[in-house]
Amino acid sequence: MRPLLLLLAALAAAPASAERLTLDRIYGEPALAGPGVRTLRVSPDGERVTFLRGRSDNQYQLDLWEYNTRNKKTQLLVDSKRLVPNEELSLEEKARRERARTAGLSGILNYFWSPDGRQLLVPIGGDLYLVDAAKPEAARKVASGNVIDPKISPKGRYVSFVRNQNLVVIDLATGAERALTTDGKGTIHNGEAEFVAQEEMDQHTGYYWAPDDSYIAYRRYDEAPVPVVRRFEIFADRTEVIDQHYPAAGDPNVLIDLMIVNPATGERRKIDLGAEKDIYLVRADFSADAKTLVYQRQSRDQKRLDLVAVDVATLAQRPLFTETSKTWVSIHNDLRFLKKGNAFIWASERSGRNHLYLYGLDGKLMHPISKGEWGVDNVLAVDETAGKVYISSNRDAVTDKQTYALNLDGSNADKPARITSGDGWHEAAFAGNGKIFVDTYSNPRTPPQVSIRRADGSMVEWLEKNELNGNHPYAKYLPDHLPTEFGTIKAKDGQTLHYSLIKPANFDPNKRYPVFLFTYGGPHSQRVTRTWGNYFDQYMAQQGFVVFRLDNRGSSRRERQFTDVIYNNLGKHEVEDQLTGVEWLGQQSYVDPKRVGVFGWSYGGFMTLRLLAAASDKIAMGVSVAPVTDWALYDTHYTEQFVGGTPKGDPEAYKRSGVFAHLDGLKSPLLLIHGMADDNVLFTNTTRLIDELVKRNVQFELMTYPGAKHGISGRVNQRHVYGLIESFFKKNLGGTQPK
Question: What is the C-alpha to C-alpha distance for residues 229 and 589, in angstroms, rounded to an integer?
Fold first, then answer.
């Protein structure tokens, strides 16, 4: 059914007692999106599709479910509460969840299939369980004691994990446990990804299995050179002093080594990463035959990325090729080794757009797999038998994500076959052999619908149809659901900027309305997307605001010409683009240009401050949550990538890219919000801002959340912070007024 017909049908089926959204309901139970699913995986034998789902009484407590493709039944597989009734998390696990943006969730957050499809590895509460898929009630604990990053080895012989900063394996045939490293303590970590790798490089593991179980390559790092930041985590009833090794821009990073270990014997060897020690080890991957290890080495300035092949037997090395850039080389997880032909797939932005290339293990380019004025988001699966590479991409629309099939031989490089239908956003999870996938689809009028499909996109079965009928949690709010409009605006230099807009409830074109401008604005992010679930946007529109979003220069899923302009001068072009959007809004007859307010979080908090500083005559108020105010206070990899250089090497770039050099222009009312235990954007960013505003006699409002991290997560905190944001907008911008 088409989305519009689905919406009309749902309207007809919705109960007569329609209600307006409330913040209590947005953060209440059950989830408004319906019975959601996450972490979708297809078992290796293709018989089960497994996923995590929130409980009916607590959407943030996740259980493991399965859909059986043989009997067509969906059922609970592992009840997290039965496994661990009272979950307690270590400080290390809490930190990992903050890095992975899963803080606030509990229960089962991840799981892994054994290669034969018979067992699952389930970590929960620091313990590790093996679950027989046929008899899940007989789950057995195989490890305990602050276990992190568990895996089942590719051939299924071992379970591996990190405990107390050391890499450990269990031989499943004998049950014997072996510590592969023993020196992990203090500042020495084995098998873990360091702070910036987790936070900024999308690396949440520090070890990599060979496909035949013969070896593990692992990171060993020493964080002793990294300065210790002493920060206070202020809770409601106590204050904790935390000594954190935090590598701020220009500071030393960890000392990194790449090691290789035999899990059967414990024999360890060190791989030479080169003469230059101040580098980033991006990741390491084994070839299909396990004879070659390829590691990615990025220079400290991030303008160079080397791929280096290592002979596993001798540790002899040979360079494959190097990526370079005048700004930064983007890193990714799309290196895929083929089982045939001694070749691998590599993603690169060298053409100005992200595309795929086929290389031989000799480092020579064989041919492009994709090309054109569009970009590949990521590789989803490779089916060598069929000669296909499955990808997600923005090829048909920047605001959409679709799934496509490319030919490995490059014969359809510029015209991949689209295999998902329905304009909007598709997230695909493929089986290992690439034969079937699970498609999660939504758009602004359609909550997430999950279906099992063949590789050509044809339907196998609904996993969660999630129809907007009278029984759906959103049904009573559907009559007041407001449409989201999408469009484009030209930037000053002619670049295309995408925006979304929701007009207020009971819209009257003869009235002028205030504007709720949401911004993030930072790199690695896209906020104008045709997806479901921007409930607070809906809520503010129903409160009488025009709700507006615009993706400025630097935002993701665009060409390098669009992103590179921010380099060495953060805030300048982003603010110009947002003000282009504000100017466009002011030309609309239904917008009151004197009542435009802005809200942003993290980079968006930084953007809020820069927008108020640049244009308090155009923006009447702002809410800044957890803002970066001085980039010298933020971490090395992110900051040096975009600001360029270090605070000592290029102080002017840091000055113009920060907030303090621009504060004299900040005149509009400001609400400043920060969590008092934020270990990402340190609370020091806000205390320094407070001091500077006081020196300038600038009045502002402040809210701090005891014990809250960067996301101020948790139902109670989220309900409160968004209620505060709403109140500040209403207090300063009022409601709708006649023209």
Answer: 51
Condensed to tens digits (0 to 9), the pLDDT of residues 96-146 reads 666 666 767 889 999 999 999 999 999 998 899 999 998 998 889 999 888
Catalytic residue among 213, 439, 678, 679: 678
Long-range pairs for 713-722: beta carbons < 8 A, 24 or more residues apart: 713/103, 713/104, 714/104, 715/27, 715/60, 715/104, 718/27, 719/23, 719/24, 719/26, 719/27, 721/625, 721/673, 722/23, 722/26, 722/27, 722/536
Q: Is the peptide bond before 150 cis (omega within 30 degrees of 0)?
A: no
Among residues 602, 624, 657, 668, which one is catalytic? Answer: 602
Distances (CA, A) of 18 to 21, 26, 478, 479, 540: 10, 15, 8, 6, 18
Q: Who has greater pLDDT, 44 or 36? A: 44
Q: What is the pairing mode between strands 446-454 and 546-551?
A: unpaired
Q: Residue 77's closest CA among 133, 123, 119, 35? A: 133
Q: What is the residue whose two structure tokens read 């821009």?
A: 249
- The single-letter DSSP state of residue 479 is G
Cβ distance 502 to 537 under 8 Å? yes
Are 276 and 253 contacting, i.e. CB atoms less than 8 angstroms apart? no
Rg (CA), the chain: 26
Task: Please state whether beta strands 446-454 and 459-464 pair in parallel, antiparallel, or not at all (unpaired).
Answer: antiparallel
| Residue of 383, 500, 710, 713 with catalytic role | 710
Separation between Cα atoms, residue 312 and residue 307, nearest integer Å? 15
Q: Which domains does the chain have, with CATH numbers?
A: 34-150 (2.120.10.30), 153-331 (2.140.10.30), 491-738 (3.40.50.1820)
DSSP string, 219-277: EEEE-TTSPEEEEEEE-SS-EEEEEEE--BTTS---EEEEEEE-TTT--EEEE---S--
Determine the average pLDDT of the residues in 371-393: 97
CB atoms within 10 A of CB 98: 21
SS3 content of the chain, % helix, strand, coil (to 5): 20, 35, 45
Taking 90 as the threshold, does the pLDDT of residue 93 lie above it?
Answer: no
Q: CA-CA distance, 474 to 19, in Å (whole number)?
A: 10
Distance CA 543, CA 490 (A): 29
Active site residue 334: no
Is 23 strand, coil or helix?
A: helix
* Residue 157: Cβ-neighbour burial (10 angstroms; 0-12, 13-18, 19+): middle
In eight-state DSSP terms, residue 661 is: G
- E-assigned strand segments in 125-184: 127-132, 135-143, 147-152, 158-163, 166-171, 177-179
pLDDT bracket for residue 717 (50, 70, 90): very high
Contacts with 529 (C-beta within 8 Å, 6 or more apart), sequence order:
399, 400, 401, 425
Place of tokens 């080389």: 329
Cβ–Cβ contacts within 10 Å for residue 61, how many?
Answer: 17
Decide: 607 and 555 in contact? Cβ < 8 Å. Answer: no
Closest CA to 540 of 17, 32, 15, 20: 20
Q: Is 332 a catalytic residue?
A: no
**Other beta carbons within 10 Å of 333:** 14
Residues 658-700 have pLDDT tens digits of: 999 999 999 999 999 999 999 889 999 999 999 999 999 999 9
Phi, psi values for residue 20, rounded to 5°: -85, 150
Whether residue 405 contacts residue 389, with contact meaning beta carbons closer than 8 Å, is answered with yes
Can you tell me the distance from the alpha carbon of 527 to that of 536, in angstroms, rounded to the nearest whole number? 14
| pLDDT exceeds cutoff 90 at 70 | no
Which amino acid is residue 568, in one-letter code?
N
Average pLDDT, the chain: 93
Active site residue 602: yes
Q: Residues 231, 235, 241, CA angle at the centre, nearest 5°?
A: 30
pTM over 0.85: yes
Strands (E), 408-510: 417-418, 425-430, 436-443, 446-454, 459-464, 484-490, 496-502
